[in-house]
Design a protein that fits this description.
179 residues, mainly alpha, 3-stranded antiparallel sheet
Length: 179
């Protein structure tokens, strides 16, 4: 992992809105795993979540009526993140058509499961992002945080204030958000 402080003050790599759209269009939503992957990419971009946060979302953490998701961030800090209605629709579809087919009696309440019915690993998320970035023919250095950085940058470009973005990202320090 990269060092903190002055070592890493350059702007993080981001995807353009067009690249995000191309990426989100890649998974084959007619297959259980394709639908799962689409939902993962949607929630990562729509909510700006860390990989660790995506892995630990439980089905009960999605609060449909309030259009929010409860996530456990760094330092086990819980935060409530707004979630787009369109992303909620993907989650509902995934739960109906995909998770129900891959979950097993031993599956815990984690939202996203692998094909064996177990909680996804960090590497699985990395593989999913890599796979669809290649399929979308995006020629950029890809890393698991790229959707999170893109989310924050697109919010800022759309006129959101830094404090709101800091809250959504769960940053303790605004200087992290500014980078």
């Amino acid at each position: 992992s990269r060092g903190r402080g002055d070592v890493y003050k350059r702007q993080p790599d981001i995807l353009t809105i067009e690249e995000i759209e191309k990426l989100l269009a890649q998974p084959d939503v007619n297959t259980p795993l394709g639908l799962r992957d689409k939902t993962i990419l949607e929630i990562m971009y729509a909510c700006g979540l860390r990989v660790s946060e995506v892995l630990t979302i439980k089905t009960s953490n999605i609060l449909y009526a309030d259009e929010v998701v409860r996530v456990i961030g760094k330092g086990s800090k819980e935060r409530i993140v707004p979630i787009a209605a369109s992303t909620l629709e993907w989650i509902k579809l995934y739960l109906e058509r995909s998770r129900s087919t891959i979950s097993k009696p031993y599956s815990e309440e984690y939202l996203f499961l692998n094909w064996r019915g177990r909680k996804l690993s960090r590497m699985a998320i990395w593989d999913i992002i890599n796979k669809y970035t290649k399929l979308a023919k995006i020629q950029k250095q890809i890393h698991p945080h790229i959707l999170r950085h893109s989310f924050a940058t697109h919010l800022l470009e759309g006129g959101a204030d830094l404090r709101s973005i800091q809250e959504m990202l769960g940053h303790a320090d605004i200087s992290t958000t500014q980078i």
